[in-house]
Amino acid sequence: MSLLEIRDLRLVFDGFEGRAHVLDGIDLSVATGEAVGIVGETGCGKSVLARSLLRLNPSPPARVTGGAIRFDGADILGMDQAALRRMRGRDIGMVFQDPVTYLNPVFTIGQQMAEVLRAHEPGLSRRALRARSVALLESVRLAEAEALLSRYPHELSGGMRQRVLIAQALAGNPRLLIADEPTTALDVTIQRQVLALIADLVRRLGLTLMLISHDLGVIGAVCRRIVVMYSGAIVEDAPAEALFRAPQHPYTRGLLAAIPDLNRPEHMPTSIPGSIPDLRHPPSGCRFHPRCPLAMPVCAREKPPLIPADAAQHLVACHAVAQSMAPAEFGLSGTPA
Ligand SMILES: Nc1ncnc2c1ncn2[C@@H]1O[C@H](COP(=O)(O)OP(=O)(O)O)[C@@H](O)[C@H]1O
Ligand SMILES: [Mg+2]
Q1: Ligand 1 closest atom vs CA 44
Q2: Helix, strand, or coil (residue 320)
Q3: In what order do the strands lie in the sheet with 74-75?
Q4: Across residues 140-169, what is the average pLDDT?
Q5: Is pLDDT of 160 > 60?
Q6: Which of 49, 148, 152, 260 is packed most tightly, with the most Cβ within 10 A?
């Protein structure tokens, strides 16, 4: 059974300037132990999706208008505040993008570790808190963890601060770890080290991982399965190897073509023409159709379903791909000309 099951999730933000249709029917199942990457341009709804799993989108203005989220069978959208508090951190741990915003500058690392631990285990003694804090900081490969407890966030490098946030996300022994752009604020070398740490933790602790990034390279370094989002919907969901070798959706192809290829310096990366839609007035049908080289009349009318392409585990939401795949079926069910 799936650990996480998202069905037709729809979410809007109500603002003075109108209603933004941010999540447009998300379908995603994640099995225990999977490492899934979610990729897509900035603004496509990755963070809103991640926060909706923990019910952390501010409401108002956010409102879930349809669908369901189940974690290990439990109905997340139906949970009361007490159940949500129990779930956050203990079932699902989350690492946010910006270590500066999520660490408080006026408290020491030790105080902030203790606060997180106490939220999960209120009865811990000071000595136990200290020991657990040191063990957690060591588990994210921070040297001299004992000494770090009396340091303030500004005394740490960006990479160290991100490790502290990962340690905090692990404090409640979650089964699912969500890391939302965990390395975007870091330089490339540190980025690689933090990604290696996440991959290692996932293996060692048997975690299920949802790694979110706008960068396919980051996702590809850690995840065996890649989910591509465009404007609030999943357009492709495939094993990483298949996605890089044989991308199906025109948007995924565009994303891949935009990555510089170091082995082929003569190959110029090309960006996808146009820009992401205004979510208050999203395009009808497939939201990618105004930018799509394969767009057909049906694309402006109907949202394509996410269906298996060349393999059962390779899902694509594209009318053009569906048509090119199944001429026989179309012939059978269609009316003779
Ligand atoms: N609190 C909020 N209020 C209003 N709109 C929001 C809020 N949070 C996110 N959005 C909107 O939701 C859309 C998706 O945002 P986000 O999930 O942060 O994108 P991504 O993480 O993929 O870059 C954006 O248009 C953003 O402006
Ligand atoms: Mg984001």
Answers
A1: 22
A2: helix
A3: 18-31, 2-15, 62-71, 74-75
A4: 95
A5: yes
A6: 49
d(CA 84, CA 98): 23
Torsion of CA 301, 302, 303, 307, to 10 degrees: -140
Chain-centre distance for alpha carbon 6: 13
- Tell me what pLDDT residue 336 has: 47
**109 CB less than 6 Å from ligand 1?**
no
pLDDT in tens, 27-70: 999 999 999 999 999 999 999 999 999 999 999 999 999 999 99
Let me know if 247 is exposed, middle or buried by CB neighbors in 10 A (0-12, 13-18, 19+).
buried
Check pocket membership of 279 for ligand 1, CB cut-off 6 A.
yes
In the numeric block, which tokens belong to residue 59? Answer: 């409401």
Ligand 1 atom closest to the CA of 57, numbered from 1: 1
Instruction: Return the pLDDT at 333.
Output: 46
Cβ(48) – ligand 1 distance below 6 Å? yes
Helical packing angle, 126-139 and 109-120, nearest 10°: 110
Which atom of ligand 1 is least distant from the CA of 212? Answer: 21
pLDDT band, very low/low/confident/very high, at 322 (cuts 50, 70, 90): very high
Q: What mean pLDDT is reported for the chain?
A: 92
